[in-house]
Every structure is written in structure tokens, then in C-alpha cells.
Amino acid sequence: QVHLVESGGGSVQTGGSLKLSCAASGFTVSSYWMYWVRQAPGKGLEWVSIINSGGGSTYYADSVQGRFTISRDSVKNTVSLQMIGLMPEDTGMYFCAAATGPFAARGTLSPDRFAYWGQGTQVTVSS
């Protein structure tokens, strides 16, 4: 049975840091493109960061470039998102998701574009 379980969310002040983790079971994260996707209150889904299968290339939304770092631990079968310099606009529910390629990030995001989708972890940044 496949599971994606996010953890590490919380409440911080502007400029603070958090590290999100996504533990996968039932499949191998290194075989999939792994995404962090967020949803701000009242807004749609936005991809934040992606790490591709195998090679480890990473991609970031312009809004988080230089502040967020995605990584993968193939031994633990986890994906992490280190976030520094957090700002109020980073507030939202953060989801971990797996897809077979980069196509899931194109156009309007929807969970049904992904092979697997987690339950999310809340990040709240106060000013």
C-alpha cells in the first residue's frame, strides 16, 4: 500500500526556518519525480520545488529560489524541503507528491496529475 506522509510544518516568524519531510512507503522515491506543492489560503495549488528521478536535478519556483532546498534520501526513502528566510506569503498547506515526469507542473495543478499525493503539513509564517 502506498503512503506519503509529510511532517515538519509549524508556525514561525518572518525570517524563520523549517524543514519539511516526506516519508514514502510502497514505492521508491528515486524512481519518481518528487514534488513539493503548496496551497495558500483561498488560492490554488502551486508547485514549489521538484527533484527528478535518478539524476537528482532540482527545480524551484521563482518565489522560493535561493531560500528553499529540496533533497532526497534514497536509503530512508524520503524527500525533504529545507526552508529558510520564510515570509508570510509562504503560508499554506504543503503537500508532497510523486509523478512519473515533469508534466505535472505544467498548467493548472491538480492532485489527479500525480501518481501519489500526501495529506499535507501546515506552514504558517507570521509577520
Tally of helical segments: 0
Low-confidence stretches: none
The biggest sheet, with number of strands, parallel, antiparallel or mixed sense and barrel status, is:
7 strands, mixed
Determine Rg (CA atoms, Å): 13 Å
Q: Tell me the series of helices and strands, N- to C-terminal.
A: EEEEEEEEEEE
- Structural class, judged by helices and strands? mainly beta
Percentage of residues assigned to helices: under 10%
Overall, the morphology is globular
What's the total number of strands?
A: 11
Distance between the termini: 41 Å
Q: Mean pLDDT, as a whole number? A: 95
Strand content: over 45%
Structure keywords:
mainly beta; 7-stranded mixed beta sheet
Question: What is the strand and helix layout of this fold?
Answer:
Elements: E1 3-7, E2 10-13, E3 18-25, E4 33-39, E5 45-51, E6 58-60, E7 68-73, E8 78-83, E9 92-99, E10 116-117, E11 121-126
Parallel strand pairs: 2-11
Antiparallel strand pairs: 1-3, 3-8, 4-5, 4-9, 5-6, 7-8, 9-10, 9-11
